[in-house]
Amino acid sequence: MERLLPYLEFWVNTLADHYRATLFMGTGAQGGVINISATVTADIYQYNFPIAPKGAQFTAAVTVAHALIPLVVIYSILMLWPGSFRQLILRLCLGVIAAILVISLTEPALLAAHIEEIFYAALQKIANQEMPMPRLLYWVMFMEVGGIWWLSINMAIVCIWISARLDAFIWRGAGKPRRSA
Question: What is the domain range of residue 109?
Fold first, then answer.
């Protein structure tokens, strides 16, 4: 997981509007965690309320187990799906790409959302009224109530479909020209 941190950090910083994030591995009460440390790059105002000054630092963490959910779901389906050994190898190779895609869609948003939640809580407290939630939090809420499972299952199905088509095309001669009678 540590090798993916620069990649995930890039996407977190792409999602971040007002801060620069750094990701690093650590340990927590539940085992390994991915920590995010965010430094505010400019004074943050939301709805004309001051939320955080430039230079303020915030931290949050996500357990590594959360990031491994897509791997477990995708590879469980890919390993148990019937088919030839060639299709299994193709499915497992495609599973790497699928897992990286799912992790890319979920983990950076989750890490950035933890920081956004801090800003949102500060806004609620300062405004002393209900304020609209940031859009990123809606995506994370969807992912947390089953979206990550839905996305992982669908990516596994896509891997199965592609592996069956590749198997038919490459090894069963679908790509060879036909003889005329």
Answer: 2-170
